[in-house]
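Quick one: structure for this chain?
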Amino acid sequence: MHTLILPLMQIPTHLDTSLVNLFLWLLLGLALLLTTITFLSRYRRCPSNRILVIYGKTSHGAAKCIHGGAAFVWPLFQAYEYLDLEPFVVPVDLKSALSSENIRVSVPTTVTAAISIEPGIMENAAVRLLGQSSQDIQNQAQDIILGQMRAVIATMKIEEINRDRQAFLGKVNEAVSGELEKIGLSLINVNIRDIEDDSGYIVALGRRAAAEAINQANVDVAEQERTGQTGVAERQRDTRVAVAAANATAEIGEAKANRDMRMESSGLDAEAVHAETDADARKASSRANQHVAEQQARNRAESAAQEADGAIRVAQEMAQKKAEDARAERERARLMAEIVVPANAERERVLIAADAEKQKAIRIAEGQAEATVVQMTAEARGVQAILDSKAQGYANLVKACASAEQAASLLLVEKLVDVARIQAQAIQDLPIEKIFIWDGGGQQGGLGSLGQKLMGALPPMHELAKQVGIDLPAYLGKAVGTEHATPEPPAKAE
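Got it. Here's what it folds into:
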């Protein structure tokens, strides 16, 4: 027994040390693994649609905001949360907002907003919106938007809001954006669905604008029709003038071409005659010289010489005659080219000008006739309108009277003033110095009754009215002494 124990007690201890070291290394590795896992679990990456908010002990104030990156969150000292960047729509049912004119306006609007990613504004969102639900954030934004929109509407008139909605939206964006940034939100869009007022002012503005647009459209249509008709008339006039000018130019060109052709032909004929005359003269001279040479070769006989001289003289006379004929033909061609041809051209020009003048006179006469027809038609329409107006007036007068005779009496009463004026003018135009009055010398005679006698010479107004069945009232006047005085013959006037 003692023999076995002794060898066991003699085993070396280096085996125990190795096991301890291995155990320690395992513990160290496990600690490192746990530390690495812990550190990796605290390293947070921020997605693009969120904001990583690290709060606790930070070097960036109350919170550190990270967008689109990553950061390590120290355990025990720091914590983290996320803010969602998805846009949200805030319905704003704004009613009975007072404008600067004290008219209540309803502006239903939808506003789209989201948490801002601008530096500084993100920190506002981390301070004021972290941990709140999306509904709580929308409620806060709705209160801010309602207040700012009421403030903007209070500074504008209804007509400005309705006419320039872009300016209204600009003011709303400016006012709302600044207030939303204070809580960390950014304004994305403002959509105004409609603008209404309790008094119906906007509806009246729309009706007025529609009426003005319709009236302007009618004016533009009438203006365009007038412009079109004027343009058509001007184009027709220009076409007729251009056609007449082209025809006149063509006829003048044809006359000039005929004149040039005749002149060229006459010149060529004259040159041909001149060439023939020269050739004949040269031939005659050659024959004469040859004949003289032959005569000289025949012993220079006198008879031969005389014959040769005679032949030469004859040849010269013939050549001179032909030359004179050629000169006469050339002179005739010259006269034809210088006098006859220009005269014919002038005659053609005069005929063309006369024809153009005749056409011009015809056109002017036609235009004057058309203008006269239009003027007389307009005058006839005016006379017709006057007659229609008179007929309508007479018809209304007949309807207003008990009978047609009464209407005629009223019309005649209107003309009595003209009758009295004509009678007065007739008496005024009488030459008093040439009037002779034959009177018996009674009490009613003499110059004292001259006016009464002149009045008796003309038909009295009352008698004239009685002839047509009208009894004039007494206040219209009558001649003195006509009731009991016997009528006397009218005075004789020269």
